[in-house]
Amino acid sequence: MEKNTIVQNAEIKVKKYFEAVDEIKEYNQEKVLKAFCDNKIGLEHFATVSGYGHDDMGREALDKVFAQVFRAEKAIVRNHFVSGTHTLACCLFGNLRYGEKLVSVVGTPYDTMEEVIGTRGDKRASLIGHGIIYDEVPLLNGIDVDFEGIKNKIDKTVNMVLIQRSRGYSLRKSLNIETIRKIIEIVKSKNPNCICFVDNCYGEFTEKYEPLEVGADLIAGSLIKNPGGGIVETGGYVAGKEEYVNQSAYRLTAPGIGSEGGAMLNQLRLIFQGLFMAPSIVSEAVKGSILASQVFEDIGYISTPKPHELRTDLIQTIEFGAAEPLIEFCKTLQALSPVESYLTPIPERVPGYDDKLIMAGGSFIEGSTIELSADGPVRPPYAVYMQGGLNYAHVKIALKGIVEKLVK
């Protein structure tokens, strides 16, 4: 069967799911627009200040818009966060103290977070090195949340739980909003004072509701993922209860400065505009991942989530069972990228990871995973993690090229 026929047949099968994606997009777009209107965003908010960044009305308005969109008491949105991992680390180091306890309730966190916590890497620099006690609740069969395990693990000694919404480099299920709600209800029933912190990376605007609306105390994410709309150049955001956001801000800057300083360096318009574009961009990426799921199921690979399943993040996982098709997938995607299509990705060591990784994605912003990209560790089950896509058409074109290579 020709590549065009495979992809076209898959598209016919999945188009019935696109209506629900569009409904979520329109709901979130209206929510974002209302936040802009309610906060009276004007051209004056795109101006910038220098030096210490004192009295930046644009930065203050940006924080208020994000807070309203995510239903938070307070938010900080900064280009000074260098990555999602840095943003999460500020939340953890800012809100935990010596002798306090952190529990990851959905298994082992994403690879780079292991070094932040201290289960791998430079122990002295980590949370454990600073005297934080760490524990985790393993997943059932490595896939499902162990709700009973959470009930048994959480008690009055636990100060914070980490809830990673997206799967990371694992085959576990990403957490939809209802699952997050159930986890938080269990935690709060065991310890009402425990901080429920959600790593929201890849999840923003994929559903109608966000984690703070179902009881989370604190969320964080990256601006070169969903909420940046594909145009924000760097940064991250933190949102939630004011006291926890403030402590995170003190870790980013310094006590006494918190969210009151930091020049935004002419990035304000991009961040405002990226947020406004985000619901539509995310919906395009979600449609692309649904199509990819169907395509790879049709040609005989294990692909999760399935086409009909509720999407709660952008990540589509395809298991190849061998290194060769994983590498071929990434090489072909790179060749069909708008930037650096002439490069050939190879497996290599990357800081923060134990295994060699292969990464593909010629993006306009380096490392942007709201743009079409794919990566994966070269280890069993040799799975690729595909994410993003600024427009559905690009994802479809890339899938045709990948299918041609793999079917051969």
Could you describe the 3D structure shown?
With 408 residues, this protein is of the alpha/beta class. 39% of the residues lie in helices and 13% in strands. The chain is built from 10 helices and 12 strands. Strands 1-7-6-5-4-2-3 form a 7-stranded mixed sheet, sandwiched between helices. Strand 4 (160-164), helix 6 (177-190) and strand 5 (195-199) form a beta-alpha-beta unit. The longest helix has 36 residues, at 3-38.
Radius of gyration: 21 Å
Number of helical runs?
Answer: 10
Mean pLDDT: 95
Q: What is the global morphology?
A: globular
How does the helix and strand content classify structurally? alpha/beta
Helix content: 25-40%
Placed side by side, the strands forming the largest sheet appear as: 1-7-6-5-4-2-3
